[in-house]
DNA sequence: CTGAAAGCGCTAACAC
DNA sequence: GTGTTAGCGCTTTCAG
């Protein structure tokens, strides 16, 4: 069944040695024009394709890069993956995508799996659960090519691509303040993640700037990033049943943001009349929501591209890359009805 | 940098031959208990991982399966991929995902790429553009393991996993009819795709059953499945500027459905007052739309699982599988406000 | 200009 | 029970 042609087959058919064929195929200058043409034409005719597995074994590299994200069914990550693929493909790399579903154990397993597949490098956005980063530290110390994006590891001076989370959250919070909301809650993913904390800091800074006190009861964490049933619902329930409930919510994670709306509605709140809403999300359909949703968008596609370019640079650099490269891009605040002043 | 242990390393360290180590590692019964224990312990200690590339070369299989879909940033496919991964993973297979972006050329390139990577099998949902299926026919004739899902190839008796498109469209159309709408348009992807035509047939059958005439001007195709800018907008524009415009639209593809809403709104139509809407989509947030969207949902996750199980069966079967396996599941109609009778 | 041979990591006949 | 060897497909010294 379906046996691809090998160099040996060509060699035999043409009465040459495998090395000659190999060299001809690779355009070595030390092969006669005649022979070269002969080989090339025959290879073309039989639709010869080099066996990448054999190549990998030989070259000790796989021309593939591993991607570790929480989920592909997530607007941000599916868009980022598009960016990753676009660059990887045109540079001749394969992309192997793995999902952690926010579990640290799956993350560790995925990394092992990818390493055992001899990927040439890793593109990683940490899972919500991850606290032990020693494996990454180890790989980093060995000079293994890795680029972190969006959810980066702390305490390691690695290559990374991030957005200005602080500014994104700051602007969004300030927009709510300018719209007249002063009681603003923060619905967040796990504080494990640096980006959660940075977004929180942006929120805090905006309130501070407007001389609004930060109330701890206005800050709710969903430690599984909204992946666990009821997590978001509980958080919202607690928030809205406070003696002095918030008038607005800023949600700082994709899944949380899109998850909020049906729950708030089910609880009987109108947006923004009863509670305004702004959130980090890359949903393509935020505009179609009821009401149209104010969002902080990340340039996911571009970030995927940048991270991949960075990684391929590191992989292909002749010498170990010691200084960590780091790129930060801006978020985009798109103001829609959900964070507008409530019409009275 | 980061040199994994090999069998040779172990053999040298322990003063054994590589074959002994290999056998011990694979639990061969002809190895002394002592030696076996020694090897296993040492392997454990140095965290030995067999090199899958060498294995692939040896066994002429890669323990990986290739996936060809139009996009991961698509609700249906990202969910299906979750299903695919869940099964593949637990069966020890890798998943390599490639995207066609609805281009036949990219599809062909992806298939070649995956074949050249020696994937053990292929999971395919055709691109919208695909009309030439000769390559698939060829692979099929060679007995190469393939399973098609959702968007299947015709004229080839292959393994496949589909939904009952006819019934899904029929039920949705009938619900619109029961809600009092009689002028119902069909917004569809390319008729290249069998599922587009099946869904169209379901729509037709429902109208027929209710003695409603099928108007050709009520049927609009987006030949790139909504991937090309302005495609959906044009279709809707044409539809709504008919002398006798439709009162309802059934959209038969994920991207089209979610794409419709902002466009209709921008054109100044209220849903469902001016035009009702129902559509095939697996969006998780259809409920949050304005208005909440009536959807025909496909069990994407399950379909991904089923297709993968089927594929792995074929791959691992001792003898070529000649009779084509075929599974069909039901869609689920979730009725929400967008297809309700318009309140007058 | 071309061929022979070694080697990437692993397994499996085939010795002994 | 364990070692030797060949071979998976390819590249690359080293010879000639």
UniProtKB/TrEMBL annotation, chains A, B:
Entry keyword set: DNA-binding, Transcription, Transcription regulation
Highest taxon, organism lineage: Bacteria
PROSITE patterns in the cross-refs: HTH_LACI_2
Domain annotation HTH lacI-type: ranges: 5-59
CDD domains (UniProt xref): HTH_LacI (cd01392), PBP1_LacI_sugar_binding-like (cd06267)
GO MF assignments: DNA-binding transcription factor activity; transcription cis-regulatory region binding
Stored Pfam families: LacI (PF00356), Peripla_BP_1 (PF00532)
InterPro entries per record: HTH_LacI (IPR000843), Lambda_DNA-bd_dom_sf (IPR010982), Peripla_BP/Lac1_sug-bd_dom (IPR001761), Peripla_BP_I (IPR028082)
Annotated protein name in UniProt: Substrate-binding domain-containing protein
The species this protein was found in: Mucilaginibacter aquatilis
